[in-house]
């Protein structure tokens, strides 16, 4: 998870900052109001091979986390167990064969 977060921060900092600010500013309506920004973060991160591998290898954990967020839109902290399971899975993904650098998508 740490590697994925570092890659997201390295290549998608601007998108993540805007999305995070939107979510913080709209605690009960962030799913609707921040949807476009969420798509921009997803587009940015989807092209990096490390993130692709983690998303593939931990697809079930990630889907449960996303479902939890949809079901708990006003209480995202309720999804802490799902975040922990996804993070634990991500830590087990072997990324040693993947490139560590990739250009930022446009």
From TrEMBL:
Superkingdom of origin organism: Eukaryota
Cited InterPro entries: CHCH_domain-containing_protein, CX9C
Q: Which residues form the IMS import disulfide relay-system CHCH-CHCH-like Cx9C domain?
A: 5-49
> Which Pfam families does this entry report, sorted A to Z?
CX9C
Name the GO terms of the biological process aspect.
Answer: cellular respiration
Gene Ontology CC annotations of this record:
mitochondrial intermembrane space
Question: What name goes with this protein?
Answer: Coiled-coil-helix-coiled-coil-helix domain-containing protein 5-like
